[in-house]
Design goal:
The chain is α/β, with parallel strands linked by helices. The chain has a domain of 195 residues: Rossmann fold (3-Layer(aba) Sandwich), CATH 3.40.50.1820. The strands form two sheets. The chain has an eight-stranded mixed beta sheet with strand order 3-4-6-5-7-8-9-10, with helices on both faces. Strands 1-2 form a two-stranded antiparallel sheet. Strand 7, helix 4 and strand 8 form a beta-alpha-beta unit. Helix 3 crosses helix 4. The chain starts with 25 loop residues before the first strand and ends with a helix.
Amino acid sequence: MGRPRRLRRLDLGEGDRRDHRPDGGRRGGVHRDVPFVEAGTVRLHVQSLGTGTPPVLMIHGLLVGSLATWLFTAGRRLAQSRRVVLYDLRGHGLSERPPTGYDLETQRRDLEALRTALNLTGPIDLVGHSYGALVALAAALDDPRSVRRLVLVEAPLPPSRAGEVTGFLGRTPQEMIAALPEAQRERVTKGGRRARRLLASLQALATGTSLLSDLAAEADFDDARVRRLDRPVRLVYGRRSGCLGAAERLRSALPQAELVLLDGGHFLPVEAPEALSAAVAGFLDG
């Protein structure tokens, strides 16, 4: 599939909130410029690349993540031989930002509704980064037969990230940008408008939604339930990550899981995009 004009906007990340207009960014009931899918109770921004089976559904992390996390990295590589579906989580990127529904179970239901809307039947591959990895794991635990292979990149374990997210959002705008990895910080600060959009989106998530309270109330995974998952799993973490404890716990609960360590920290999609793409594609295509 050729690159449509709309993709130029995607590396702006989280900030373009065209869907805040009363008509939801539509004219005459038709979405303009970007594809949206009504997934249950929320409208999600979606990009579909390539053709071929089995399909791959890729999920980004919270806050500074959007479908662009995967679009220009592993998503493009996988799309050479199969269909790849990317979407913005609720409240992120160009997806609708409802005031509630940022708990893991609701995010899992969003994913399920998206699969139904896009007719992604049969076992598919799931790939998630950070919180997106938790959504992917929750989906696999809920319906293991719907998943062929699972890649969890820098998956934390709830509610371990709640305090970190709260601390991040409590910083000044300048401190938020300074806390990003260098590659992502450069991408955000190339244009002043881009940075302003990102920061406005982060503040809206913090003050206008239940994101923080939902994260704080999240229950830990049931290790016994995780152990029942029999799908092939690859765990990918950065050697300088703060989530390595979660990696060991998941590997203990999932004896079939392969653990791959890459040079980098938590933001592997921007810190080590080529190595991460190879780790994801090598497992899914193996």
